[in-house]
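Input record, target 12 of the design panel.
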């Protein structure tokens, strides 16, 4: 799935400054739309990022789109589980 996300054209449609719900304080929600080259698959939503992440990528819309892509791809990666020791 992450490979398919990599091919999507991502557009950031809205930037909302919010208080993050995970106790990290203020942050940013990057609302986005992604579409494949044939316009058959669409993906939309938002990803929460810190102020630092936002401002380090705010020099261009392409940089923000790449940040969104990274965050979305991370959501589809299998979770790393702690090894079980007995």
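The sequence produced for target 12 reads:
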């Amino acid at each position: 799935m992450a490979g398919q996300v990599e091919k999507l054209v991502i557009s950031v449609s809205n930037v909302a400054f919010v208080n993050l719900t995970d106790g990290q304080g203020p942050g940013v929600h990057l609302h986005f739309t992604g579409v494949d080259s044939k316009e058959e698959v669409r993906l939309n939503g938002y990803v929460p990022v810190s102020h630092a992440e936002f401002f380090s990528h705010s020099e261009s819309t392409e940089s923000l789109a790449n940040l969104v892509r990274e965050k979305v791809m991370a959501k589809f990666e299998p979770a790393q589980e702690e090894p079980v020791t007995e």
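The longest strand covers residues 9-20.
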